[in-house]
Amino acid sequence: MHAKKLDKLATGVLYTIASIIVAILASLILYILVRGLPHVSWSFLTGKSSSYQAGGGIGIQLYNSFFLLVITLIISVPLSMGAGVYLSEYAKKGPVTNFVRTCIEILSSLPSVVVGLFGYLIFVVQFEYGFSIISGALALTVFNLPQMTRNVEDSLRHVHHTQREAGLALGISRWETVLHVVIPEALPSIVTGIVLASGRIFGEAAALIYTAGQSAPALDWSNWNIFSVTSPISIFRQAETLAVHIWKVNSEGTIPDGTAVSAGSAAVLLIFILIFNLGARKLGSYLHKKLTSA
């Protein structure tokens, strides 16, 4: 009886703690949405931002956030896949491999502002890319690569060893086994990790303040010159993202309706991050069911 009472007490304490955490998170999300959604409209989502007049929108900042996300994923996904495959399938146990994993752990624990300052010194100043999308994307790659690499490695390690043995028994090479057997089996977990990382990239601000810049020049949609500062596809122009815009509006305070713009922008940012997180679960489950039924 005494053990059962202790078990019920411990279970009750755990449920209480979990309920408190969920209540805090839910109240925070509701507060941001209730405060910001009334200010969100189509003109707000597509309009240009204003520095001194009321009624500005977040159209360019929203586009910059998605464009920067795409560029970052183009750089970081191949690198993380290569590093994860090497660590999971080819790296031998030893001091070199342990050192690499230690470096990954250290990089994953760095504050984003430190990565931003590193990106400023290396990509903005040393490489002379200036405040630009490519500088921001490279800084975010440094910031997000450890987590994505670890996700790929863990996903591949969770594939049962019999899958590899079956491929090798059929006479295909080790690389072909990894490419055609192991990676497809781990694909749902890998895609889930990439989508979750996308949400982290989309909401990042500190690393981009020092690399991508704090201005959002007007875009000329008829200009497709990749080196032009007004081209929407240029990676060499400054690009204030939505998260940086929220920080800037609250720090400078030059817009008459700054509170409304900040609240609306925060609500939009939160909605997209929720979409990324919930979409990752749905996409991972869908891919898992599709691959297991194939």
**CATH homologous superfamily (4th level) name:** MetI-like
Counting DSSP H or I runs of 4 or more residues, the number of helices is: 11
Low-confidence stretches: none
Largest sheet: none
The number of strands is 0
* Tally of distinct domains: 1
Percentage beta strand? under 5%
CATH architecture: Orthogonal Bundle
- What's the SSE pattern? HHHHHHHHHHH
* SS class: mainly alpha
Give the C-alpha Rg. 23 Å
Average pLDDT for all residues:
87
Q: Which CATH C-level class is it?
A: Mainly Alpha
Q: What global shape is seen?
A: globular
Note the gap between the termini: 50 Å
What is the share of helical residues? over 70%
Protein name: Phosphate transport system permease protein PstA
Family: Belongs to the binding-protein-dependent transport system permease family. CysTW subfamily.
Organism: Streptococcus sanguinis SK72
GO molecular function: phosphate transmembrane transporter activity
Structural write-up:
Residues 62-280 form the ABC transmembrane type-1 domain. GO terms for molecular function: phosphate transmembrane transporter activity. Keywords: Cell membrane, Membrane, Transmembrane, Transmembrane helix, Transport. The protein is mostly helical. It has one domain (40-292): MetI-like fold, CATH 1.10.3720. It is built from eleven helices and no strands. Helix 1 (2-36) packs across helix 11 (258-293), helix 3 packs antiparallel against helix 8 (174-202) and helix 5 crosses helix 6. The protein is globular and about 70 Å long. The chain starts with a helix and ends with a helix. The mean pLDDT is 87.
